[in-house]
Amino acid sequence: MEKFEVNILGCGSALPTIQHLGSMQVVNVRDKLYMIDCAEGAQLQLRKSRLSFSKINNIFISHIHGDHCFGLIGLISTFSLLGRTATLNVYGPSELRTILLSQLHWFCPRMDYRVEIHTIDTKQHAMIFEDKSVEVYTIPQKHRVDCCGFLFKEKQGLPHIKRDVIDAFGIPVCYINNIKLGMDYEMPDGEIIPNHLMTIPPEPARSYAYCTDTLFRPQNAELLQGVDLLYHESTFCNKDAAFAKKTFHSTAGQAGEMAALCNVKKLVIGHFSARYKSENILLEEAKQKFENTILAKENLCITI
Prior knowledge:
There is one protein chain. By secondary structure, the protein is an alpha/beta fold. Helices cover 26% and strands 27% of the residues. It has two domains: 4-157 and 203-303, 4-Layer Sandwich (Metallo-beta-lactamase, Chain A); 160-200, no CATH class. It contains ten helices and 18 strands. The strands form four sheets. A seven-stranded mixed sheet has the order 6-5-4-3-2-1-18. Strands 7-8-9-14-15-16-17 form a seven-stranded mixed sheet, with helices on one face. Helix 9 (252-262) runs parallel beside helix 10. The longest helix has 14 residues, at 94-107.
Protein backbone atom coordinates (compact mmCIF):
# COMPACT_ATOMS: atom_id res chain seq x y z
CA MET A 1 0.00 0.00 0.00
CA GLU A 2 1.33 3.43 -0.95
CA LYS A 3 2.05 6.06 1.67
CA PHE A 4 -0.72 8.21 3.16
CA GLU A 5 0.39 9.93 6.37
CA VAL A 6 -0.61 12.95 8.42
CA ASN A 7 2.23 14.70 10.24
CA ILE A 8 1.15 16.97 13.12
CA LEU A 9 3.63 19.83 13.45
CA GLY A 10 1.54 21.96 15.81
CA CYS A 11 -1.80 21.42 17.55
CA GLY A 12 -2.19 24.30 19.99
CA SER A 13 -4.48 27.31 19.73
CA ALA A 14 -3.79 31.05 19.78
CA LEU A 15 -1.35 31.10 22.70
CA PRO A 16 1.82 29.03 22.12
CA THR A 17 2.98 26.99 25.11
CA ILE A 18 5.93 24.80 26.02
CA GLN A 19 3.82 21.80 24.98
CA HIS A 20 2.15 23.10 21.83
CA LEU A 21 2.73 25.35 18.83
CA GLY A 22 0.04 26.78 16.56
CA SER A 23 -1.75 24.79 13.88
CA MET A 24 0.31 23.21 11.10
CA GLN A 25 0.34 19.83 9.45
CA VAL A 26 1.87 18.04 6.48
CA VAL A 27 -0.08 15.40 4.58
CA ASN A 28 2.07 12.87 2.73
CA VAL A 29 0.31 11.10 -0.13
CA ARG A 30 2.55 8.81 -2.19
CA ASP A 31 5.61 10.83 -1.12
CA LYS A 32 4.09 14.15 -2.19
CA LEU A 33 3.85 16.66 0.65
CA TYR A 34 0.91 19.02 1.15
CA MET A 35 1.00 21.53 4.00
CA ILE A 36 -2.09 22.64 5.94
CA ASP A 37 -1.77 25.91 7.87
CA CYS A 38 1.58 27.33 8.84
CA ALA A 39 2.09 28.66 12.35
CA GLU A 40 5.28 30.05 13.86
CA GLY A 41 8.17 27.61 14.02
CA ALA A 42 7.25 25.69 10.88
CA GLN A 43 10.85 25.32 9.72
CA LEU A 44 12.01 23.75 12.99
CA GLN A 45 9.04 21.40 13.11
CA LEU A 46 9.65 20.26 9.55
CA ARG A 47 13.23 19.43 10.47
CA LYS A 48 12.18 17.60 13.65
CA SER A 49 9.71 15.52 11.63
CA ARG A 50 12.39 14.88 8.95
CA LEU A 51 10.15 16.21 6.19
CA SER A 52 11.71 17.48 2.97
CA PHE A 53 11.40 21.23 2.39
CA SER A 54 11.73 20.77 -1.35
CA LYS A 55 8.75 18.38 -1.59
CA ILE A 56 6.29 20.99 -0.31
CA ASN A 57 4.75 22.62 -3.38
CA ASN A 58 1.23 23.35 -2.10
CA ILE A 59 0.18 25.07 1.14
CA PHE A 60 -3.46 25.35 2.25
CA ILE A 61 -4.37 28.10 4.73
CA SER A 62 -7.69 27.66 6.53
CA HIS A 63 -8.12 31.27 7.73
CA ILE A 64 -6.30 34.47 8.57
CA HIS A 65 -5.60 34.08 12.27
CA GLY A 66 -2.00 34.21 13.43
CA ASP A 67 -1.85 30.75 14.97
CA HIS A 68 -2.57 29.37 11.49
CA CYS A 69 -0.45 31.60 9.23
CA PHE A 70 2.20 33.60 11.12
CA GLY A 71 4.86 31.12 9.98
CA LEU A 72 4.07 31.33 6.27
CA ILE A 73 6.30 34.25 5.26
CA GLY A 74 9.17 32.81 7.31
CA LEU A 75 8.87 29.46 5.56
CA ILE A 76 8.72 31.16 2.16
CA SER A 77 11.90 33.07 3.02
CA THR A 78 13.63 29.88 4.18
CA PHE A 79 12.71 28.16 0.91
CA SER A 80 14.48 31.00 -0.90
CA LEU A 81 17.59 30.72 1.28
CA LEU A 82 17.70 27.00 0.47
CA GLY A 83 17.85 27.79 -3.25
CA ARG A 84 14.32 26.85 -4.23
CA THR A 85 13.37 27.33 -7.90
CA ALA A 86 10.04 25.48 -8.13
CA THR A 87 6.80 27.48 -7.93
CA LEU A 88 5.03 27.41 -4.56
CA ASN A 89 1.22 27.41 -4.62
CA VAL A 90 -0.61 28.91 -1.65
CA TYR A 91 -4.38 28.49 -1.24
CA GLY A 92 -6.41 30.58 1.19
CA PRO A 93 -9.17 33.12 1.80
CA SER A 94 -9.23 36.32 -0.27
CA GLU A 95 -7.60 38.37 2.52
CA LEU A 96 -4.48 36.22 2.27
CA ARG A 97 -3.56 37.70 -1.10
CA THR A 98 -3.33 41.27 0.22
CA ILE A 99 -1.39 40.26 3.32
CA LEU A 100 1.05 37.93 1.59
CA LEU A 101 1.79 40.23 -1.34
CA SER A 102 2.76 42.98 1.11
CA GLN A 103 4.99 40.62 3.09
CA LEU A 104 6.64 39.32 -0.06
CA HIS A 105 7.35 42.90 -1.14
CA TRP A 106 9.09 43.78 2.14
CA PHE A 107 10.77 40.54 3.17
CA CYS A 108 11.31 38.53 -0.03
CA PRO A 109 11.84 41.04 -2.84
CA ARG A 110 14.42 38.99 -4.75
CA MET A 111 13.58 35.30 -4.87
CA ASP A 112 14.46 32.77 -7.55
CA TYR A 113 11.03 31.14 -7.42
CA ARG A 114 7.42 32.24 -7.77
CA VAL A 115 4.67 32.22 -5.16
CA GLU A 116 1.25 31.71 -6.75
CA ILE A 117 -1.64 32.78 -4.49
CA HIS A 118 -4.95 31.02 -5.14
CA THR A 119 -8.04 32.58 -3.59
CA ILE A 120 -10.65 30.11 -2.35
CA ASP A 121 -14.29 30.53 -1.37
CA THR A 122 -14.46 29.32 2.22
CA LYS A 123 -18.27 29.23 2.18
CA GLN A 124 -18.50 26.59 -0.56
CA HIS A 125 -17.65 22.91 -0.68
CA ALA A 126 -15.58 22.62 -3.84
CA MET A 127 -12.49 20.95 -5.26
CA ILE A 128 -9.63 23.47 -5.20
CA PHE A 129 -6.68 21.25 -6.13
CA GLU A 130 -6.01 18.06 -8.06
CA ASP A 131 -2.98 16.10 -9.17
CA LYS A 132 -2.29 12.45 -10.01
CA SER A 133 -2.44 11.39 -6.37
CA VAL A 134 -5.12 13.40 -4.61
CA GLU A 135 -8.08 15.77 -4.78
CA VAL A 136 -8.46 18.53 -2.18
CA TYR A 137 -11.85 19.99 -1.28
CA THR A 138 -12.89 22.86 0.97
CA ILE A 139 -15.09 22.20 4.02
CA PRO A 140 -17.10 25.30 5.07
CA GLN A 141 -16.58 26.18 8.74
CA LYS A 142 -18.18 28.69 11.10
CA HIS A 143 -15.65 30.95 12.77
CA ARG A 144 -15.16 34.63 13.54
CA VAL A 145 -13.54 35.15 10.14
CA ASP A 146 -13.88 33.36 6.80
CA CYS A 147 -12.61 29.85 7.43
CA CYS A 148 -12.66 26.42 5.84
CA GLY A 149 -11.33 22.98 6.50
CA PHE A 150 -9.81 20.68 3.89
CA LEU A 151 -10.74 17.21 2.69
CA PHE A 152 -8.01 15.12 1.04
CA LYS A 153 -9.29 12.29 -1.17
CA GLU A 154 -6.73 9.85 -2.49
CA LYS A 155 -7.21 8.88 -6.12
CA GLN A 156 -7.88 5.23 -6.79
CA GLY A 157 -4.70 3.31 -7.55
CA LEU A 158 -4.23 0.90 -10.42
CA PRO A 159 -4.89 -2.84 -10.03
CA HIS A 160 -2.06 -5.14 -9.00
CA ILE A 161 -0.67 -7.63 -11.49
CA LYS A 162 -0.83 -11.36 -10.78
CA ARG A 163 2.76 -12.13 -11.61
CA ASP A 164 2.25 -15.91 -11.62
CA VAL A 165 -0.54 -15.60 -14.24
CA ILE A 166 1.53 -13.25 -16.40
CA ASP A 167 4.46 -15.66 -16.28
CA ALA A 168 2.27 -18.70 -16.93
CA PHE A 169 0.89 -17.21 -20.16
CA GLY A 170 4.24 -15.73 -21.19
CA ILE A 171 2.80 -12.23 -21.51
CA PRO A 172 5.52 -9.71 -22.49
CA VAL A 173 6.39 -6.98 -19.97
CA CYS A 174 5.48 -4.28 -22.51
CA TYR A 175 1.78 -5.18 -22.10
CA ILE A 176 1.72 -4.76 -18.30
CA ASN A 177 0.65 -1.10 -18.29
CA ASN A 178 -2.23 -1.78 -20.66
CA ILE A 179 -3.38 -4.65 -18.47
CA LYS A 180 -3.26 -2.39 -15.40
CA LEU A 181 -5.45 0.07 -17.31
CA GLY A 182 -8.08 -2.63 -17.79
CA MET A 183 -7.32 -4.22 -21.14
CA ASP A 184 -7.54 -7.93 -21.88
CA TYR A 185 -4.63 -9.74 -23.55
CA GLU A 186 -4.83 -11.63 -26.86
CA MET A 187 -2.53 -14.62 -27.14
CA PRO A 188 -0.74 -15.37 -30.46
CA ASP A 189 -3.29 -18.14 -31.17
CA GLY A 190 -6.19 -15.70 -30.69
CA GLU A 191 -7.19 -16.82 -27.18
CA ILE A 192 -8.34 -13.87 -25.03
CA ILE A 193 -7.09 -13.70 -21.45
CA PRO A 194 -9.66 -11.61 -19.53
CA ASN A 195 -8.31 -8.78 -17.43
CA HIS A 196 -9.77 -10.04 -14.15
CA LEU A 197 -7.66 -13.20 -14.36
CA MET A 198 -4.45 -11.15 -14.54
CA THR A 199 -5.13 -8.49 -11.90
CA ILE A 200 -6.07 -7.97 -8.27
CA PRO A 201 -8.27 -4.95 -7.43
CA PRO A 202 -6.39 -2.03 -5.84
CA GLU A 203 -6.77 -1.08 -2.19
CA PRO A 204 -9.70 1.26 -1.44
CA ALA A 205 -8.88 4.95 -1.81
CA ARG A 206 -8.32 6.72 1.53
CA SER A 207 -9.37 10.13 2.83
CA TYR A 208 -8.44 12.69 5.48
CA ALA A 209 -10.48 15.65 6.78
CA TYR A 210 -9.07 18.66 8.63
CA CYS A 211 -11.66 20.71 10.54
CA THR A 212 -10.54 23.77 12.50
CA ASP A 213 -11.47 26.48 13.69
CA THR A 214 -15.23 26.14 13.88
CA LEU A 215 -18.41 25.90 15.83
CA PHE A 216 -19.98 22.46 15.88
CA ARG A 217 -21.39 22.00 12.35
CA PRO A 218 -23.42 18.79 12.03
CA GLN A 219 -24.50 19.93 8.55
CA ASN A 220 -21.01 19.00 7.35
CA ALA A 221 -21.54 15.34 8.26
CA GLU A 222 -22.75 14.48 4.76
CA LEU A 223 -19.53 15.85 3.25
CA LEU A 224 -17.35 13.78 5.55
CA GLN A 225 -19.15 10.44 5.61
CA GLY A 226 -16.79 7.53 6.10
CA VAL A 227 -13.48 9.40 6.02
CA ASP A 228 -10.60 7.32 7.29
CA LEU A 229 -9.21 10.01 9.59
CA LEU A 230 -10.85 13.17 10.93
CA TYR A 231 -8.86 15.90 12.67
CA HIS A 232 -11.31 18.08 14.57
CA GLU A 233 -10.62 21.01 16.82
CA SER A 234 -11.32 20.44 20.52
CA THR A 235 -10.30 23.78 21.94
CA PHE A 236 -12.37 23.49 25.12
CA CYS A 237 -13.83 20.87 27.44
CA ASN A 238 -17.58 20.53 27.87
CA LYS A 239 -17.80 22.70 30.98
CA ASP A 240 -16.49 25.59 28.90
CA ALA A 241 -19.09 25.09 26.14
CA ALA A 242 -20.49 28.61 26.59
CA PHE A 243 -17.05 30.14 26.00
CA ALA A 244 -16.50 27.82 23.04
CA LYS A 245 -19.70 29.12 21.47
CA LYS A 246 -18.76 32.74 22.20
CA THR A 247 -15.37 32.32 20.50
CA PHE A 248 -16.68 30.15 17.63
CA HIS A 249 -14.86 27.00 18.68
CA SER A 250 -15.84 23.40 19.46
CA THR A 251 -15.63 21.28 22.59
CA ALA A 252 -14.06 17.84 22.75
CA GLY A 253 -17.49 16.29 23.20
CA GLN A 254 -18.70 17.99 20.04
CA ALA A 255 -15.67 16.70 18.14
CA GLY A 256 -16.54 13.17 19.23
CA GLU A 257 -20.16 13.70 18.24
CA MET A 258 -19.06 14.92 14.82
CA ALA A 259 -16.92 11.83 14.32
CA ALA A 260 -19.87 9.62 15.20
CA LEU A 261 -22.19 11.50 12.84
CA CYS A 262 -19.67 11.11 10.02
CA ASN A 263 -19.00 7.41 10.67
CA VAL A 264 -15.28 8.05 10.46
CA LYS A 265 -12.76 5.34 11.19
CA LYS A 266 -10.55 7.38 13.50
CA LEU A 267 -10.65 10.79 15.21
CA VAL A 268 -7.68 12.89 16.28
CA ILE A 269 -8.43 15.98 18.35
CA GLY A 270 -6.31 19.12 18.57
CA HIS A 271 -6.20 22.94 18.68
CA PHE A 272 -6.00 22.75 22.46
CA SER A 273 -6.55 25.80 24.64
CA ALA A 274 -3.56 26.79 26.78
CA ARG A 275 -5.80 26.80 29.86
CA TYR A 276 -5.56 23.01 30.22
CA LYS A 277 -2.42 21.59 31.80
CA SER A 278 -3.40 18.14 30.54
CA GLU A 279 -5.50 17.24 27.51
CA ASN A 280 -6.68 13.98 29.08
CA ILE A 281 -9.98 15.57 30.10
CA LEU A 282 -10.55 16.47 26.45
CA LEU A 283 -9.67 12.95 25.33
CA GLU A 284 -12.06 11.40 27.84
CA GLU A 285 -14.93 13.66 26.77
CA ALA A 286 -14.36 12.96 23.07
CA LYS A 287 -14.16 9.21 23.69
CA GLN A 288 -17.54 9.27 25.43
CA LYS A 289 -18.99 10.10 22.01
CA PHE A 290 -16.48 8.29 19.80
CA GLU A 291 -14.23 5.62 21.25
CA ASN A 292 -11.52 5.50 18.55
CA THR A 293 -10.10 8.92 19.42
CA ILE A 294 -6.49 9.97 19.99
CA LEU A 295 -4.79 13.20 21.03
CA ALA A 296 -2.74 15.19 18.55
CA LYS A 297 0.79 16.07 19.59
CA GLU A 298 3.75 17.74 17.97
CA ASN A 299 5.66 15.58 15.48
CA LEU A 300 3.11 12.78 15.65
CA CYS A 301 2.85 10.86 12.36
CA ILE A 302 -0.43 9.05 11.72
CA THR A 303 -0.57 6.43 8.98
CA ILE A 304 -3.87 6.03 7.17
